[in-house]
Amino acid sequence: MKKVYLLLLFISITAFSQRKTETINSTPLGEARTITIELPASYETNKTRKYPVLYLFDGEYLLDPFSGALKYGVYWDDLPETIIVAIHQNKNDEREDDSTFDAINGLPFEKGAKFFEFVAGEVIPKIEKNYRTAPFRIIAGHGVTAGYLNFFLYKEVPLFNAYISMSPELATQMEVRVPEKFAKLKTPLFYYLSVADGDIKKTKEPIQKLDQNIKIANNPLINYKYDLFKNTTYYSAVLYAIPNALNQIFEAYKPINLTEYNDKIAILKSDYVDYLRNKYDIITKTLGVEMPVRMNDYIAIETAILKNNAYDELGILAEIANTSYPKAMLGEYELGLMYEKMGDAKRASKKYQNASQMEPIGRLNKDLMYDKIDEMNDLIKKK
Known about the structure:
Structural class: alpha/beta
CATH topology of the largest domain: Rossmann fold
CATH architecture of the largest domain: 3-Layer(aba) Sandwich
Number of helices: 15
Shape: elongated
Helix content: 40-55%
Largest sheet: 8 strands, mixed
Strand order of the largest sheet: 1-2-4-3-5-6-7-8
Strand content: 15-25%
Low-confidence stretches: 1-17
Mean pLDDT: 93
Distance between the termini: 72 Å
């Protein structure tokens, strides 16, 4: 029995394992380097979906905490499924050598310059050629690699859309150059910066200066967050920074919750459907995630429409429903609800009848449609 259990456990782990380790024979580095790729759980079953990509320096110890935070967020639908690419830097002081910069001009130097070519010219093209990637790249690092990742900002068009820099060791003039770059950017970019109060003074002071200069640059296109973690060390602060960074970057992805509804939707006088459209436009265009509108979000917008008697917007909501769920009864139901609220029971009944012949979705099912049909027919008879 024990052998059967172990065999089933092995099969289960194999069937659901999404990690693979690959070797890249790097031309600029002149050596073989190892990367680990973790694919989302739905990657093999959803053949058309594309995923954001998170690239990790220090992959040997950052992969598991980032993977755990993402899986937890995905479970609650607060974070999107994401491909993780972890670059290993765990032998012979690789992380320090890979991050080498010229002390005078503050730019990648010797192996640091070659490592830049390795990431930009070999790792990223390999991933984007072989996997279904969305046009949204994140880069993360810790300590010396967290400082190094800022070099990708120096390009005319930054190589990544989001940067997670935890307790960075900053290169020469980096606390000035990064904000200067931010001031000039014309496209959205996410930047997360953190420091532990247990970090050494030599590390903390440039980080604090960087934070001040970014705030002075004050570019509204830069989605910026800075965390100073009390009672933490260089190592322990990472576990606080990771979820904060991911939630900052993917804030727009989250379903509409009570706070968002009260603070942003309930206060509107009209254009409730426009709010929904804009939310999903940001998810698609800024985060590179294509997805149907969640039922929870439909209900939130429908609630606001009904509360404010903006019944004509139910028709617009139905258009979105028919795009996201063409076989489901949601679109016809919204049209039926619109006619019902406008006092046209006959047309409402017809729409509810149409809905009853379509696929159930969320709280909507055939029994509810039949109840609505009976309710409308009773109103028709009374006229």
